[in-house]
Amino acid sequence: MSSANALLERLDCFVVVEPNFVWTELHFLFSFQNAGDKENMLNILNVLDELLSAGTDRRIHHMISKGGSEALLTALVNSARSFTPNYTILLPLLHLLAKVGYRDRQIGLKAQKADAVLVVLGLLRQNTENSRRAAACLWVLRVFCSSVTTANLLGKNRGLDVVFKLISPHSTKHLRTVKAAVDAFAAMLRSKVNCRTAVAKGYIADLLKLYEDWHNNDVNLKNIPIRRALLHCLQCAANSAVGRDALVTEGGISLLFQTTQTCLTMKGLESLVEPAIQLMRKCNPKVPLPLTSDKSVFSFPLPGQPVDDWDADLGLYDDSLEDDSDEDAENEEPDNRDYEDDLETDVNKLRPQPEPDRTLEQLGQYVRLCPELHHDFQDLDSSSEVDESSDDDSTLEGDLNDETQSDQRGSDLPSDRDEHHLHTSDFHKHYLNCSRRGQKGHSSMVDRLLEKYGICIPNHDPRLYAATAANTKSIAGYSILAFPDFWGHLPPQEQEPMAKRPQHVQRKKVFEDIQRLICPEDIINKVIFDMDDHSPQCTPDMCPSSLHFFSKFESGNLRKAIQIRSHEYDLILNADVNSSAFCQWFYFEVSGMVAGVPYRFNIINCEKGNSQYNYGMQPVLYSVRDALEGRPHWVRTGSEISLHIYSHILHSAFSFYTLTFTVMFHHDDDVCYLAYHYPYTYTTLQTHLKMLEKSVDPQKVFFRQQNLCDTLAGNSCSLVTITACPTSRAWKHLHQLRNRPCVVLTARVHPGESNASWVLKGTLEFLCSSDPVAESLREAYIFKIIPMLNPDGVINGNNRCSLTAEDLNRQWLMPDPNLSPTIYHTKGFLYYLNSIGRTPLVFCDYHGHSRKKNVFLYGCSMKETLWQSGSPINTASLKEDPGYRTLAKTLDRIAPAFSFNNCNYLVEKSRASTARVVVWREIGVLRSYTMESTYNGCNQGIYKGLQTGTRELEEMGMKFSQSLLTLRRNAIHYNSRLIHHASALLDLDDRLLDHKSNNFFEDDEPPCMEEIEYSSCSDPFGANELDTEVNGNTSSEEEDEEDADICRDGKQRNNRKSHLVPHYLKQDALETLTIKSGQCNGSNGYLY
Ligand SMILES: [Zn+2]
């Protein structure tokens, strides 16, 4: 004892002064200890246990780093191999090893190296009848299995059988050992080989029976840890395909379903519900999307490229991908990668370099796009009414006249009854078929509708819409108009709050999904609508008890609708043209409903997770009945909204998300439209531009719509010029006009971002208005606006791309004139402005953001980017005009939806080919922005907690225009009116607010309230749980045959306290330690 005490004394002091020495010393002792020197050994273990239990995990990690695990393993092997293993030493050693090993990631490999794996398995074999020893061995084996090769080694040596035998049916005895066995078994199932063995030996079926047994007999809820461990074990098995199959064939899903339903009715069983749900989701057999091909229904032959072999690749479901490891990984959002790495640090790439990518001659073609510079403004003097109509449209009047003179055929009109019972077919056959303009009946229908319901939506005219639609070229040759686009929309009076998310929505939905599998008799599974199938679809007569779907209209993109249950439908979106991806936007018509019934819709092939749908955003709904009754509103709708990874749809490349929501319609047999966001079609834009042009006073407002270029599908990409006409033709006035700086605005490069169009609508309307600030703006600037950079995408219901299946906002570096004409010519036009010395003062590209709230700007700053990226370049020596921040600061004050704190001026490598970065760097526009508008709503300002409507989006567009005035306050000295407006409007002081940019890639939302854990098999228990169990093993109230005489201490202990060594042996050591720690240091025993 004395030598041990001496050692302890030394050790204890060294803990403080020379911790490294302690471990060296211990290692030495363990390695060369005499197996017979029991007393020394116990004392050492005792010291270790005390040391490791007292502090934080850092001590254990320090010990591990100093070879502590190896020392323990060596000691264990030496002790166990002696002729008569001494369990007084082995037991504490095993306990310590479990605690330390749990925190040592390499423990499995170290154990193999020390030959400890099979030694412990041998000990377990010898002690299956001794529950305490068995438990100690099981913990160590479990810890060893952190390495799959160790797990394999155990499997090869029939470890599964040994361990499984220790998992008993429900019992009141040896609970700790049973749990240790379940945990060890689960750990061994980390190896796929072991999984296969376990399945082959029927262990999965047995585990299910065991789970059921413990579930049924655990009346007093005393065995929740074991039940949870059994679930975890099943989860580990479910990580392999063979395990999942076994679980399904053995009836695992219905067992879990039923047991979980019981758990939900009892308090205190919450911890069993979540793992059971995960397990059910995981095992729900995967099937491909119910499509023959996931490629878009639409293909479009691209110039200079061979026609895609459309049938070649039907590979929705690739067997080779049924790999064990492909499970449930959440879609890798590109935005989640390490943001700092993405920041541009090459100063040359950050420095604006206006060098055209084409010759001056090539730029000559854009002269025509600056008519205001060459216009002679003769009408200012003559007051003649020279037609200044746009380049490309003079047939409009004729069209409308045709319509109004076509004959009135009362027989085509719906009867009075029909006017109150709208049928989808009425619209399609009569009202809204734009291709039937020439035929009798059509225009009269429109007229009658308008006569009867006469609506007045500002800057909208249904007849003009119908006429304009005839010129819109879609791939499918759409001839039918969606009613909301035709009829128009007014924002509802009331602002709409964000939806409350009820508790456990996802859970409820998963249960419903699981029921599809276990109650197949309830499943209808009937295709109601299919874009691929041209045979007559489910008409109201054929399917009287189904909803009816339709989306063969501009921006519509429903591909298939399948009735699942009487009031539940799976919906599949069409992929972007020429692609098999990018689904998120949706727009379709639904009819045949019964009022007040909750219908569940599942859009099962969404590609983005973490959208605002989990944070209060709702889809939008338009009711034709409501519209005809004087409420032509898109309104937010839907309850029980959830966007989650769908359990059973398999995709070759990623997980699909399902957007699920429930809608209760207000009227029977209404015709309604549902959309991702307020639709804004290409035809809407063209109609709007015509209305605007007619609305302005040509004597005062120079408004010109021109064709920038044709799109691939032959639609016109419009460029609008707005500025004030000069007061007179006097040189001074013309000179002032021609020297106004340019502001270039673009929008809707991403077709799914219809919010961008509504914001731009606000901008356009304001700029054309008679508001004095608008007048000032027109006098201050020449506005060049390209309202829709991607008409083809918008028309054909794409979400992200153009017809080339590429993101047009990634084409700006080298836009191809044939494949990306709108980008090629927008860039060319900007070069042209640059070449004539009229580099825009501001460029802004309007977008929508699906994962953030508020409206905000992304800009470009070299200094901020270098600074944020941690670049060694001294940014102090670099010059940069801080003016890029002015607009955001102004907007923060005047635009309620705008949030300065969401703005960001960093230049990312991955964004090098976007409009914002290219216009900044190549065209040299200091104020080059992307303006992002939320689809959802705001979390600040007066709109906090509200979803944005079109009113707020349009207001944002107006405020953006107004903010531009601040940039000209000091420039125009001779226009006092303008200065007055600017100051009155903005009431600004010039102090630069020193806000720091935010990293816009950081997650803007906290994890969803009930986020389902998608990761495959994390250890749900943690070190503390194991510690507690191990500690309990030395002071168990359970019977213990051999050590029954040892003093028992039945009190519940804190798991930090040391318990490894029997109490009577501890006394000396404890006393020594207490004294020593007082002597050595007096305060605390820091190891570092
Ligand atoms: Zn966008």
Brief description of this entry?
It holds the Pfam family TPR_CCP1_N. The chain is built from 44 helices and 22 strands.
Question: What features would you describe in this structure?
Answer:
This protein is an alpha+beta fold and 1088 residues long. 42% of the residues lie in helices and 11% in strands. The strands form five sheets. It has a seven-stranded mixed beta sheet with strand order 15-16-18-17-19-21-20. A six-stranded mixed beta sheet has the order 3-5-6-8-13-11, with helices on one face. It has a five-stranded antiparallel beta sheet with strand order 4-7-14-9-10. A hairpin with a 5-residue loop joins strand 15 and strand 16. The longest helix is centred in the last third of the chain and has 18 residues. The C terminus is likely disordered. It binds zinc ion (ZN). Zinc ion (ZN) binds next to loops.
Features:
1088 residues; binds zinc ion; 44 helices; alpha+beta; 22 strands; 42% helix
- Which descriptor suits the 3D outline? elongated
Share in helix: 40-55%
Low-confidence segments: 309-337, 383-425, 436-441, 988-1003, 1036-1059, 1061-1088
Major sheet: 7 strands, mixed
How large is the radius of gyration? 36 Å
Bound molecules: zinc ion
Strand order of the largest sheet: 15-16-18-17-19-21-20
Distance from first to last alpha carbon: 29 Å
Q: Kindly state the mean pLDDT as a whole number?
A: 80
How many strand segments? Answer: 22
Portion in strands: 5-15%
